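Rotation project, supervised by the postdoc (A.L.). Task for the rotation student: set up a whole-complex structure prediction and record inputs and outputs verbatim in this book. Inputs entered:
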Amino acid sequence: MEKTGPFEFRQCVNIIKSTGKKAKTLRDLRDIIAVVSEEAIFHHIYHYFLKGHILEYTSDFAQWAGESIEERVLSEHLSNIDPYAFLNINDLRAELLRVMDDYLDAFPEPREAMPGEEFYFNETITLIFPVGIRARNLAEFLIALKYIDPGSLYYHFYDARMRLGGGTDDFSRWFEDALGKRGLAEKIRTVDLFMHSIEGIREHMIEAVEEELRRDMEWRGIER
Amino acid sequence: MIAPYAGIAPMGDILLLQKLGEKLAGRSFLHINSTRSGGGVAEILGRMVPMLRELGIEARWEVIEGDEGFFNITKKIHNALQGNPEKITHEMWERHFEINKKNAEGLDLHADAVLIHDPQPIPLIEFRKEGKWIWRCHIDLSNPQKDVCDYLTQYCKKYDAAIFSVAKFARALGIDEFIVPPSIDPLSEKNRKLTYEEIQATLTKFNIPADRPIILQVSRFDRFKDPAGVIKAYRIVRKYNDAILILAGSPAADDPEGEAVLSEVKELASGDPDIHILLLPPFSDRDINALQRTATVILQKSLKEGFGLTVSEGMWKRKPVIGGAVGGIPLQIIHGATGFLVHSVEGTAFRIRQILNNPQMGIRMGETGREYVRTNFLITRQIRDYLAIWYSMENKGRSILEL
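Outputs recorded:
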């Protein structure tokens, strides 16, 4: 995306593919995480945010450990892993394994999942496409923000952190580089993305952008 | 065909359909199943094929023909895949193949992509021409009879890919396996908006009072749908709350136990004027729609379930839905957000009481459920997925595709 031109909204859609692998126990889960494709790890960690609702934890692995085998201490540990703090998937995989190994050392006989409650490893094929909406200024951006699909918010806010690195997202970067709004960019960049659903992020952003627009209009009034 | 979905389905789904349509325009897409009418597959195909054509794709829908003996065999195969014990003899498998061979001689199997629906036409893979061949399994494969599953696997492995409704139905086949949940059509007779008069007509027809909370379960009278458990839960609720119960469905004609289950349910309900057992004839979609729109709480208290699209139907009508935590139901109900997942009669009664006593919570769940279905379980999403799978197979090896 152009850093200084209009903001062009894009969207991603995922097609789910089964890996054919499933875990019945925590040890199975651990052993499969050790060898499964990077796409599968990516799907079960990062795409969790795309589900559009807040579950109790912050990844499919943590959710399964907490809900299906009721190892809630492990769920808390897994939920505390910040996937955006890793430069690549294999570093994230190593951290998942470290947390699980520590837990298995302390609690060597965790529960088994009931039949039908096993963990099924999937991966995704992601399709990315422009949605045909461009914002040239903050007011146009605000209108678009209210109506874009959650998949578009995910792409620009969550997925961007992996694409761009450095803890930033497409929105913040555009606010700063194209509009010169460093304060607004900082406000959006520092939103705790683990504590909001996608719709929560939308509301938060609408509020911040509206406030910025109001301030801009008031300043224009004073300048006159 | 697509325009009426604008403003209903997510904008991104319609856009992606159009973009994939541009990529695949002029290519041929053949669907083959075993019936032109009746059942969810035929219903979806009837709507999907014209939509694909509108996108510029040369879509065709063919139906294999067979005699009663053939369909008795395929029914047994279907039941065995769903876990019922069945004996499929060598002669039966031979006949399954021979009928498909005969059909292959009469069908034009040339296409860029061929989607074979369910096990009835699965042997057609032996007669493949060019193009990508995909087997679409709509059946609950969570606990199949092993020998039957193994036999069909020989055919599956010859396809380029398979599609299952739920991840836990997928098998390790050694080919690409995609997960595509089924969907509802928001414009169909069962789900479209109804007028006040249309709803009233249904209530009058079945003598349903509109001034009391309604607990509703729509399903076949089948033990796996647990209608007896629903009545027991209702009896617990009635100790605390005023409400009527409606059990609406048709007797399962292909289930020898259907009549027995219906008799048991009637006996269990006897003497209670607040329990309405409605035997609906086929093609009662508008009445089902009206009943769902009138309900205060919708149940799908299944003990075993394929996907259970009645859950999405209820959620689409902004109703809180309480469902058994089995099959595809947990994929549709977000516990505590769009309804509740339950594991017992007592749990069902407790959750019904919670909703009856907190109408605002029911409204909130209904709104969340509607949006969840809009995003995940509409027909436009299912067609989008089929085209995306076909397109991804043409770009094999890439996990990110930019359009």
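Student's summary: The interface with chain B takes residues 11, 13, 15-18, 20-22, 39, 52-53, 55, 116, 118, 120, 122-129, 131-132, 147-152 of chain A (CB under 8 Å).
Supervisor addendum: The two ends of chain A are 35 Å apart (CA to CA).
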